Amino acid sequence: MSKDIYQQMTDRIMLTGSKIIPELFRMIADESEAELMMAMPGTPETLAEKTGRPVDEVEKACQTLYYKGLVFKSFKEDTVGYKMCRDMIQFHDATILWPDATRAYHDLWQRFMEEEWPDFARLAEQFFPKPFTRIIPVEQAIDAGNQQILDIDSANRIINNADTIAVTKCTCRITAHKCDMPLEVCLQVGNAAKYTLDRGTGRALSKEEALAVLADCEEKGLVHVTMNKAHAGHFICNCCSCCCQAMPLVISEGLNILDPSRYVAQIDPGCCTACGTCLDRCFFSAIEEEEDTMAVIAEKCMGCGLCQVTCPEDAITLKAVRQEDFIPV
């Protein structure tokens, strides 16, 4: 049996076999829109030629699909083109933030995350050499006296180096709503921020406001996550342990779908009073009690630094244990 256009779209974003993803596409794109997406990439003029439709009709449809989060603008010289979302992450994040998305649409995304995503994540672990995202450590936790802190290791520096900053709601917590952690904490920087502001799915922040968001998230126990590339990237998510796409599977199964930072926590037994505050803060069960002190299980530590933020004795620091080339170029 030949595949319908929504199944073909599902194949294009590398989720062949999903029963739910075609229905998500069907909920927000009619067949005419779906056919236009499958003709992409292209400018409105080239897409009009491919589909046999008037240019003005195609341009209007492209704008609608862009607003929905199904397609993205691409720029070459002075020409604006359009391309379909390239993968599940783009499809998920952009369309969930579409202002007109319904509760039913969000709920169907959560069904996908619970029923189908774990199997796809296990396949992704085997197929891709490195995870798409990685953890950024809490900067104040790093033992800066003995090591260089790279810009790509520092959420604060990513913010301070950005020319544009925006904040959106966390798409994972919008759909999962499993906790009461803050929603408006997903920071977009550079081109991603410009895209967010152009679509109207977030609001602009000053650097001071963005740094305050980071500090608040650290205090509340959210982990900083960014793109796993050796440059500043496009976003800083602030992730909880229950709603996030990756975190629950990292915690429950140890899946390699989220890279650690280059750091591991270390606890000074001379300062530690074994109060257990760090034990409660750790997502990854990387801290245990040993006699009269707490100790880090290095092979479990993801180097986020949340344990340090609320340590009353300042007994915890982060030490670099991975080389700079751990982060992909």
Instruction: Indicate the CATH architecture of the largest domain.
Output: 2-Layer Sandwich
What is the residue-averaged pLDDT? 95
User: With helices defined by DSSP (H or I, 4 residues minimum), what is the helix count?
Assistant: 15
Rg over CA atoms: 22 Å
Instruction: List the secondary-structure elements in sequence, H or E.
Output: HHHHHEEHHHEHEHEHEHEEHEHEEHE
Spatial shape = elongated
Number of domains: 2
Strand content: 15-25%
User: What's the CATH topology label of the largest domain?
Assistant: Alpha-Beta Plaits
Oligomer: single chain
User: Uncertain runs with pLDDT below 50, 5 residues or more?
Assistant: none
Quick one: biggest sheet?
A: 6 strands, antiparallel
Number of beta strands: 12
Reading side by side through the largest sheet, how are the strands ordered? 3-7-8-5-4-6
The CATH class label of the largest domain is: Alpha Beta
> What proportion of the residues is helical, as a percent range?
40-55%
Give the distance, in angstroms, between the N- and C-terminal Cα atoms: 42 Å
Structural class: alpha+beta
